[in-house]
Write a structure and sequence with these properties.
binds flavin-adenine dinucleotide, five-stranded parallel sheet, Rossmann fold, seven-stranded parallel sheet, Alpha-Beta Plaits, 402 residues, single chain, 11 helices
């Protein structure tokens, strides 16, 4: 709440500084339109007589009715606009992590599905840890729509009051989660790399200040606590065969007029000739140490022999060795392949955060003190330009014999 006291001298400085046009003059006094005010505090700082103050709600609220960890289950898109795709892998990653959080809190893990038809979700999601599935059934959900999903999800949250909600940091999740956070006036931590429970609160850890420090973010004053997590950050737990979740059908009324955008046709990108790093089992990556686009081909040749995807550090992308879609790391893609090979990559924290979950990391670097070696299982100190062609040759011969 913004308050303007009798101390106001009518200098109009606050009106000029407000980025949201929430302040105006009424006679010789400033007045605020609270529906436009975002409590950004610019007016408080500029006021020469300290007539403006913000009263934030800090009193400890009773959140005892908020229970349960929820996961938004994202479905794949398909070209057929009348059919839903399969469950995206990231949903299983979030359920696996959500299970640990729910166990710590001794609360239920609930999956939230928006779809036109139930495709045995209680069985599939139950095996990955869900105790309950809130199944929101409506033809309107077949094609993702920001307005409709936001209204429906917010209504569901208001009805059942979960303590935490996890979203994938995908195109849909990154669109939906902030809308809901804004609609419910709660916080949201984007791109978390770790989640845990401390004193009953969700600890949302994510890189901050350019990735140089890890910040633990808490939301003690609002519910639900909301976070997004990128694909490939959390590991999928072993599914429990035969575990079935309780299916709760939610009849959510949809006002079709809410839909401001209608998808008329969807054309899916044809599978490109090069493997995508997102879901690759093996990735061979190169960095600035590869020196030129021509020499970067040595990385690509090894990848081709192994049937691996090609990754790159940001420096390699910036230097034009590879396209941005191949960038691994904080501002690229987070990956977790079985095998990650790094050639001429120093191992800056922003790169490590995107690949450290790989099962086996092999690194080749001239510098024995390179940070990449701290994450590597197999570390080779040497010249990548010499090692790469030899390794490719040996593997070519070995693979031919098999
Ligand atoms: C906000 C922010 C986001 C970022 N996001 C990302 C991101 O998503 N991904 C990312 O990768 N970076 C990211 N960065 C950049 C990151 O900080 C590093 O600058 C970058 O990762 C360095 O790339 P590199 O390791 O290829 O290059 P360098 O750090 O220059 O390392 C080159 C390495 O090659 C080695 N080398 C040289 N010649 C040879 C040779 N012949 N044989 C073997 N080794 C050799 C050197 O010893 C050195 O270790 C980000 C930075 C910021 C601030």
């Amino acid at each position: 709440m913004l308050e303007i006291s009798v101390k106001c001298i009518g200098c109009t400085k606050c009106v000029a500084v407000c980025p949201f046009g929430a302040l105006s003059m009424s006679g010789k006094k400033a007045v605020v339109n609270m529906s436009a005010c975002t409590l950004c505090g610019a007016c408080v700082q500029i006021c020469p007589v300290e007539a403006i103050s913000i009263k934030r709600e800090t009193a400890s609220k009773d959140f005892s009715s908020y229970k349960g960890v929820w996961v938004f289950v994202e479905l794949e898109d398909s070209e057929d606009l009348s059919a839903e795709g399969d469950i995206r892998k990231v949903s299983f990653e979030l359920l696996s992590e959500g299970r640990k959080l729910a166990d710590s809190l001794k609360e239920d893990l609930c999956a939230v599905v928006f779809a036109a038809k139930n495709k045995n979700y209680e069985r599939i999601l139950g095996e990955y840890g869900a105790d309950k599935v809130y199944f929101c059934e409506n033809e309107e959900f077949t094609v993702y729509n920001t307005d409709i999903y936001c209204a429906a999800f917010s209504a569901l949250i208001n009805k059942h009051k979960p303590s935490a909600v996890l979203f994938p940091a995908t195109v849909k999740g990154r669109d939906l989660a902030p809308r809901i956070a804004s609609a419910l006036y709660v916080g949201l931590t984007a791109d978390c790399t770790a989640l845990s429970i401390r004193d009953g609160l969700l600890v949302q850890s994510r890189p901050a200040f350019g990735g140089n420090i890890m910040a633990d973010i808490l939301s003690p004053n609002s519910r639900p606590q909301m976070a997004t997590v990128r694909p490939n950050v959390m590991k999928i737990s072993q599914p429990k065969s035969g575990k079935i979740a309780i299916l709760i059908r939610e009849d959510i009324k949809i006002d079709k007029n809410m839909r401001r955008v209608k998808v008329l046709k969807r054309r899916m990108e044809k599978a490109s000739s090069s493997l995508k790093i997102e879901n690759a089992n093996m990735i061979v990556s190169g960095g600035r140490g590869m020196k030129s686009k021509e020499r970067f081909r040595l990385v690509e040749e090894l990848a081709s022999v192994l049937g691996a995807a090609v990754g790159a550090s940001r420096a390699a992308v910036d230097m034009g060795f590879k396209e941005k879609s191949h960038q691994v790391g904080q501002s690229g893609v987070t990956v977790s392949p079985r095998l990650y090979m790094a050639f001429g990559i120093s191992g800056a924290v922003q790169h490590l955060v995107g690949m450290k979950n790989s099962d086996i990391i092999v690194a080749v670097n001239k510098d024995p003190n390179a940070m990449i070696f701290t994450a590597a299982k197999y570390a080779f100190i040497g010249d990548a330009h010499q090692i790469l062609p030899k390794l490719t040759e040996i593997l070519k011969k070995g693979l031919k014999k098999d």
